[in-house]
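Re: Re: ligand-bound prediction request (bumping)

Still looking for help on this. To restate: I need the protein modeled with adenosine-5'-triphosphate bound, output as structure tokens. Inputs repeated here so nobody has to scroll up.
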Amino acid sequence: MLEMERVNCYYGEVHILKDVSLSLRPGEILGLFGRNGAGKTTTLRTLMGFVKPTSGSIKFDGQELTTLRPHDIPKLGIGYVPQGRGLFTFCTVEENLRIGLLLRRSGNETLDWVLDLFPVLKERLRQQAGTLSGGEQQMLAFARALCSAPRLLLMDEPGEGLMPTLVKQLLETISTLKARHVGVLLVEQKIDAALKVADRVALMENGSIRHQATPAELASTPEILFKYVGVRR
Ligand SMILES: Nc1ncnc2c1ncn2[C@@H]1O[C@H](COP(=O)(O)OP(=O)(O)OP(=O)(O)O)[C@@H](O)[C@H]1O
Ligand SMILES: [Mg+2]
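Reply:
Sorry for the wait, this slipped through. Here it is.
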């Protein structure tokens, strides 16, 4: 469903993404790991059209994304949970979710499905988003992205600042999206937790994808994870 081929991009004069190629199938979870500054967020921002590549192509179900304007990309069914959540903090929980619904004209049945996944939010529909706890805000950002009924979901460190049981819960929720054939590109620093749900992993360093493998392959070659993310398992 997603084919990113030899994408290059720059911030000013600085070459950030270097020949990045990635692909994703429906229902697949691809983990994108790398050290701070490796280019993970830039990869997601490029997919969302916020950063324009200087070369390369990005195809979603055969349609070229690099020529589209950023506000047209979510309408195709690509959801984005940005690092740092990007909520409308002065709106209520419900208003944030309804903005998600509007994107793809999803109906109340989508909202009901999402609220069943996040019962905590159901109890707080009228609360101002900015007053939610950090973990609740993280869930709201995820829930809002799901309200647009995405077919591809880009998640930038959804586990950031969450306690381990919540990270586990959140990743389990990501796994349930498989049944709906949603593809997920998951950037996460909580490597151990993310490896439990990822089907494949791409390791990024200095703006390039250096290695791709399954979690099982990485388990048998621990030196690779150590090299790219400094994790010993
Ligand atoms: N708007 C910008 N202008 C200039 N340089 C930028 C900009 N945004 C990011 N960069 C640089 O691009 C590089 C890649 O940043 P990016 O945010 O993609 O990294 P990351 O892998 O997401 O890191 P982290 O794990 O810390 O979130 C970094 O060196 C960063 O300083
Ligand atoms: Mg980042």
